[in-house]
Amino acid sequence: MSDAGLIWMELPPLPYYITIGHSTYSPGEQHPARRSLGLFDLLWVIKGTLYIGEDDNQWEVTEGQTLLLLPDRHHYPVKPCDVETVFYWIHVDFIGKWSLISERSASPVYPQVRNSWENPFTIRIPQYSSPPEFALAERHLRKLLANSAQQRSSTYWSEQQLFMELLLLLEAGQSRSDASPALKLAERIEAYLRQHFQSDVTNTSLAEEFHFHPNYIVRCMKEIYDCTPMAYLHAYRIEQAKLLLIKTEWSIARIAESVGFLNAPYFSNCFKEATHISPLRFRKQHAL
Length: 288
Hints:
Elements lengths: L4 E7 L4 E10 L8 E2 L4 E8 L1 E6 L2 E6 L3 E4 L4 E4 L7 E9 L4 E5 L18 E6 L1 E2 L4 H14 L4 H24 L5 H15 L7 H8 L3 H12 L3 H19 L4 H7 L5 H12 L3 H7 L3
Helix pairs in contact: 1-2, 3-5, 3-6, 4-5, 7-8
């Protein structure tokens, strides 16, 4: 049995559901061999066992397990099925950047700031897994298969939504349970900074809020977000200022105060350092 890996998909764009099928193999039948399908092939085994390989890796995918076959690889049967085997397959298109990462070496670095023009994110889907919510996934799969026989105009959004819920079940099944302490703390701090960016937040106040030493908080943020808490806070304040410059006619002084800067001159200097233009010029660029 090959080691499991994680498929990292950098969003946007989102993975796109193409179609679903339901297959039953009698004993002696096997999955066909294919090369460079051009689509991800997501298998959900309901009954029996699929013996399938991909390049140098081989798996026994049994009842309640999933396997995500990659679009640019050679897929082949390892041996025929021993018993009747029933499974769903989903073809998925993804034109964004993806990579296969060993679970042992996976240590995610998230985008530094959720800003106003971009909201990048990386989802991590296990290539081979046993989702704890498999019964719920099977209900989604049955609905998805039923939708595939209906008029596309009436089921399109339902199909995409069901597919996203299946991806969420796959990701949630492995990401939250084994999340590192650094990841858990960094995500809490990141959310806190976004909620309190207008306040006077410091490393000391974060230590008091989360009951950890300031050095440990800084280390966790740098490990996960590749920046210190104060650097994240500073960048987030600049992003919020960009929104206010476009969405309001507030003065520079009012915007500076609203996003947590001490005074307008300091805010203007920080804004220009981050964007290479002044707040007023930024506003004029987006004005009619």
